[in-house]
Amino acid sequence: MRPIVELRPIVEAAAVSRSYGARLAVDGIDFALCPGELTFLVGPSGAGKTTLLKLINREIRPTTGQLWVAGLPAHLVKPSRVAELRRKVGVVFQDFKLLPRLTAAENVAFGLRVVDLRLSDQEARERSLDALEAVGLGDRGDAFPHQLSGGQQQRVAIARAVVAQPPVLIADEPTGNLDQETAWEIMDLFEDIAAWGTAVLVATHNVEIVTRLKRRVLTLVHGRLVRDQPAGQTGRMAWLASS
Ligand SMILES: Nc1ncnc2c1ncn2[C@@H]1O[C@H](COP(=O)(O)OP(=O)(O)OP(=O)(O)O)[C@@H](O)[C@H]1O
Ligand SMILES: [Mg+2]
């Protein structure tokens, strides 16, 4: 049965390639991400996962092809308009990248300041505490990063990434520094964020989680998209054989 409201993709890649000098890191990729969808990006080390995420965030530009993010052409965007595109994309890293001298709430507020410089301190704090509440840390707003566990620090980083409600969230190996139980909690959070309507793309090597969650899986090998497995299927992790 077709959905009553057909969702339009929020990210669309058409024949996207990216080279570093002579090395082709992403090779002619086509895919689309829709709002409300949690998608895993898997593949052996060096397959091009981080490169693909950086393209979506317009940290780098495609060498060829077209990449549309929230209606903006990331393949064309001039440096002067990069900030506009980046506001559409929340980013989560393996090593959290929190500012050590700021509290959890101040770190999250940083995510708001980037989007809206006119926001009052009080409003920024209230919205940051709301975001921390949403990730299960409502009572830790005044804690500094070193006073939090790795999983809690990653929750703060996720709150910072989503506090301005970007339509797209990308995460590069977000559970790589966490134990498996904590990794599951973080993935639960990504499922919640997708359920709020965000398109979430998570690059990961965590085979157990990818296999058990049965979400959509994009597999990259040598820069090529070799498999696009829809949600609900249990696929062979084809890339394992080549990793
Ligand atoms: N800044 C760069 N300059 C030159 N080559 C690069 C650069 N970044 C990545 N590469 C190369 O591009 C290819 C893809 O790298 P990428 O980091 O995207 O892989 P990955 O799938 O994220 O790997 P991993 O699972 O180890 O994180 C690799 O061959 C890598 O060596
Ligand atoms: Mg990587």
Topology readout:
Elements: E1 11-20, E2 23-33, E3 38-42, H1 49-56, E4 64-69, E5 72-73, H2 82-86, E6 89-92, H3 104-113, H4 121-134, H5 150-162, E7 168-172, H6 180-195, E8 199-203, H7 207-213, E9 216-221, E10 224-229
Parallel strand pairs: 3-8, 3-9, 6-7, 7-8
Antiparallel strand pairs: 1-2, 1-4, 4-5, 9-10
Helix pairs in contact: 3-4, 3-5, 4-5, 5-6
Magnesium ion is lined by residues 49-50, 172.
What's this model, at a glance?
With 243 residues, the protein is α/β, with parallel strands linked by helices. It has a domain of 67 residues.
Explained architecture:
- This protein is of the alpha/beta class and 243 residues long.
- The chain has a domain of 67 residues.
- 30% of the residues lie in helices and 25% in strands.
- It contains seven helices and ten strands.
- A six-stranded mixed beta sheet has the order 6-7-8-3-9-10, sandwiched between helices. A four-stranded antiparallel beta sheet has the order 2-1-4-5, covered by helices on one side.
- β4 and β5 form a beta hairpin.
- It is globular and about 45 Å long.
- The mean pLDDT is 93.
- The site of magnesium ion has 3 residues, from α1.
Oligomer: single chain
Question: Biggest β-sheet, characterized?
Answer: 6 strands, mixed
Residue fraction in strands: 15-25%
Number of discrete helical segments? 7
What's the order of the H and E elements?
A: EEEHEEHEHHHEHEHEE
How far the N terminus sits from the C terminus, by CA atoms, comes to 38 Å
Strands of the widest sheet, in order across it, are: 6-7-8-3-9-10
Helix residue percentage: 25-40%
Average pLDDT: 93
- Overall radius of gyration: 18 Å
Name the overall outline. Answer: globular
Named once each, the bound ligands are:
adenosine-5'-triphosphate, magnesium ion
Number of E-state strands:
10
Indicate the structural class: alpha/beta
Report the uncertain regions.
Answer: none
